[in-house]
C-alpha cells in the first residue's frame, strides 16, 4: 500500500519534473501519419533498398537503370558510414541523378519505438537535413528502422509531413536468407500473381546487389510488372520540397 503510494508520487513527480513527459501527454491522440505497406496501382512493383548509402549502391542503381526500372533508396545518415563522407555523398547523388526515389530511413537506424517525441524528431531531422544539403530534397516518405513504429512515431511523422512505408514482401537478405532462399521467396510470391508488390531489400549486401536483384528483375519483367518508385506506385509526390543542394562546410559532419 505504502509502496504503491510512493510509486504514484514518484511517477507524478517525474512527469512534473520532466517537461517532455507533459508534452507527450498533450500530444497523445494527435493526428497520425499514414502507413503504407502495399502499392496502389495494379501491375506496379516498388523495389526498395534500405540502410545505405554504401558500397553496392552503384551496382544496384545501374542494374535497375539497365532494366528500365526505378527503385527507392531509404537512406540512413549514420549507419554503415557517415552520409557526409565524400564517397557516400557521391552515392546519394548517384542514385538521385539516376532517377531513383530517395526516402528517409532516419539517422542512426535506432528502433524508434524506444524513443521519446524529441528523440524521434532528432533521428528524423538529421537525415532530412543531410538530404536537403546533398541533393536538395525533403523526403515525403520515411521507412522506420526494423519496420517498427507506434502511435508516437506516426504522430511525429505527421508533424514532419511524412508518411511511413513498410512492405508486403521481404527478400530476407537482412535476416539471413541465402541467395537461393531469397530467389525462391520471390518465386513463391510471384506464383500468386499479386496485383502489386512493395518489396524490402538492402543495398548493403553484395549478394542482393549481384544475384538476387538481377534474378528478381528478370522474373518481375517476365510477369509483366512495372518497377516504379514508392511514390509512383502510390500515386503521390516523392518529396515535400525540391530545392538547391548546399555547399559543404565544417558543419557537414556526423
Ligand atoms: C507536405 O508534403 C507534400 C508532399 O507529400 C507537399 O506537397 C506539401 O507542400 C508539403 N507541405 C508542407 C507544408 O511542406
TrEMBL record:
Keywords, in A-Z order: Carbohydrate metabolism, Cell membrane, Cell wall biogenesis/degradation, Glycoprotein, GPI-anchor, Hydrolase, Lipoprotein, Membrane, Metal-binding, Signal
GO molecular function: hydrolase activity, acting on carbon-nitrogen (but not peptide) bonds; metal ion binding
Signal sequence annotation: 1-17
Xref: Pfam families: Polysacc_deac_1 (PF01522)
Subcellular location: Cell membrane
PROSITE patterns: NODB
Coiled coil regions in record: none
Protein name: Carbohydrate esterase family 4 protein
Amino acid at each position: 500500500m505504502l509502496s504503491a503510494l510512493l510509486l504514484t508520487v514518484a511517477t507524478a513527480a517525474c512527469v512534473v519534473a520532466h517537461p517532455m513527459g507533459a508534452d507527450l501527454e498533450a500530444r497523445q491522440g494527435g493526428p497520425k501519419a499514414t502507413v503504407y505497406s502495399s502499392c496502389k496501382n495494379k501491375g506496379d512493383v516498388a523495389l526498395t533498398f534500405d540502410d545505405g548509402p554504401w558500397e553496392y549502391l552503384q551496382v544496384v542503381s545501374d542494374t535497375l537503370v539497365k532494366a528500365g526500372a526505378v527503385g527507392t533508396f531509404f537512406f540512413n545518415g549514420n549507419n554503415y558510414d557517415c552520409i557526409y563522407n565524400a564517397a557516400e555523398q557521391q552515392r546519394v547523388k548517384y542514385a538521385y541523378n539516376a532517377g531513383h526515389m530517395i526516402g528517409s530511413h532516419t539517422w542512426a537506424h535506432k528502433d524508434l519505438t524506444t524513443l521519446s517525441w524529441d528523440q524521434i524528431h532528432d533521428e528524423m531531422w538529421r537525415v532530412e537535413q543531410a538530404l536537403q544539403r546533398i541533393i536538395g530534397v525533403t523526403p515525403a516518405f520515411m521507412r522506420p528502422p526494423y519496420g517498427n513504429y507506434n502511435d508516437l512515431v506516426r504522430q511525429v511523422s505527421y508533424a514532419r509531413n511524412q508518411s511511413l512505408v513498410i512492405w508486403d514482401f521481404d527478400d530476407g537478405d537482412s535476416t539471413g536468407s541465402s541467395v537461393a532462399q531469397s530467389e525462391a521467396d520471390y518465386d513463391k510470391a510471384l506464383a500468386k500473381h499479386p496485383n502489386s508488390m512493395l518489396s524490402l531489400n538492402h543495398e548493403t549486401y553484395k549478394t542482393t546487389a549481384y544475384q538476387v536483384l538481377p534474378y528478381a528483375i528478370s522474373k518481375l519483367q517476365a510477369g509483366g510488372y512495372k518497377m516504379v518508385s514508392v511514390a509512383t506506385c502510390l500515386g503521390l509526390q516523392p518529396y515535400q520540397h525540391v530545392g538547391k543542394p548546399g555547399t559543404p562546410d565544417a558543419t557537414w559532419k556526423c
